[in-house]
């Protein structure tokens, strides 16, 4: 590692979040632990609200689809009013959420509830998005040099905006020209990077993608996108082949933009 020159044709830098701009531990330990620890309290506090009822309705529908899966947790309808019945249904939702999270599922129903819980947690200051300290100064430099900067993460666009809107560096959303999530396609499929380029309005080789995941790097490269793999504390280790094959950086400051000379 050291200095990595950015190819002259690059006009846009596409950033992964987890393990790239943000420690993996923040996502796993802070964000997901917050959901597990607070889901019951959140449901009790917001149960009567329309948004919460919609979230529970989606989870119930997902639970019906999952009924044949091993260990699946059904969510009953409230058959009567009363504190005891309400607690029974809430506990079923809590158990369902914990079960889905234990399998690292990414269902729309689970993501939606998580998104609403995180929104409340960020807004009240219970959670702040963690950003590696080299990230913001580097992005400011890239933008001054005329680069566009985008985010591409498996977390929803809403979750991305919360993380950067309520971050340890303050609200830094103005640093990004746009956000992509898996609605544009999975990160391990090359077609997703072609769609992103079309959406940005450039060729795939006008983009440099920074990620910590070699499978994503490989998919982007197949689409003729430039790639660098980011090595951060807590990230999964790379094989010797991956280390010798990919351009590696351990800090955004290692990228050298020809246009900034």
TrEMBL record:
In the UniProt record, what gene is named as encoding this protein?
ENOPH1
Against HAMAP family, the record matches this protein to: Salvage_MtnC (MF_01681), Salvage_MtnC_euk (MF_03117)
The name on file for this protein is: Enolase-phosphatase E1
Q: Which GO terms describe its biological process?
A: L-methionine salvage from methylthioadenosine
> What does the entry list under GO cellular component?
cytoplasm; nucleus
State where Mg(2+) binds: 16, 18, 212
Record: residues binding substrate: 153-154, 187
What the entry lists under Pfam families is as follows: Hydrolase
Subcellular localization is given as: Cytoplasm; Nucleus
Molecular function GO labels: acireductone synthase activity; magnesium ion binding
Q: Which organism is it from?
A: Taeniopygia guttata (Zebra finch)
Name of the top EC class for this enzyme: hydrolase
The protein's matches in NCBIfam families, at most eight in alphabetical order, are given as: enolase-ppase (TIGR01691), HAD-SF-IA-v1 (TIGR01549)
Biological pathway? Amino-acid biosynthesis; L-methionine biosynthesis via salvage pathway; L-methionine from S-methyl-5-thio-alpha-D-ribose 1-phosphate: step 4/6; Amino-acid biosynthesis; L-methionine biosynthesis via salvage pathway; L-methionine from S-methyl-5-thio-alpha-D-ribose 1-phosphate: step 3/6
């Amino acid at each position: 590692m050291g200095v990595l020159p950015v190819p002259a044709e690059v006009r846009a830098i596409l950033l992964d979040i987890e393990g790239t701009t943000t420690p993996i531990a923040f996502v796993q330990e802070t964000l997901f632990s917050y959901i597990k620890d607070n889901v019951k309290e959140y449901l009790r506090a917001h149960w009567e609200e329309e948004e919460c009822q919609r979230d529970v309705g989606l989870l119930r529908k997902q639970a019906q689809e999952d009924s044949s899966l091993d260990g699946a947790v059904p969510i009953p309808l409230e058959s009567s009013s009363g504190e005891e019945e309400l607690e029974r249904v809430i506990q079923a939702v809590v158990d369902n959420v914990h079960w889905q999270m234990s399998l690292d599922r990414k269902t729309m129903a689970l993501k939606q509830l998580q998104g609403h819980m995180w929104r409340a947690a960020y807004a009240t200051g219970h959670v702040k998005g963690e950003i590696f300290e080299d990230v913001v100064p580097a992005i400011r430099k890239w933008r001054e040099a005329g680069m566009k900067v985008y985010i591409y993460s498996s977390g929803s666009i809403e979750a991305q905006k919360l993380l950067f809107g309520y971050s340890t560096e303050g609200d830094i959303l103005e640093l990004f020209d746009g956000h992509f999530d898996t609605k544009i396609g999975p990160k391990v499929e090359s077609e997703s990077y072609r769609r992103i380029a079309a959406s940005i309005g450039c060729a795939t080789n006008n983009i440099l993608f920074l990620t910590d995941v070699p499978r994503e790097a490989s998919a982007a490269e197949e689409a003729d996108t430039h790639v660098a793999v980011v090595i951060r504390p807590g990230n999964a280790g790379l094989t010797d082949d991956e280390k010798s094959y990919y351009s590696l950086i351990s800090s955004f400051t290692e990228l050298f933009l020809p246009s900034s000379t």
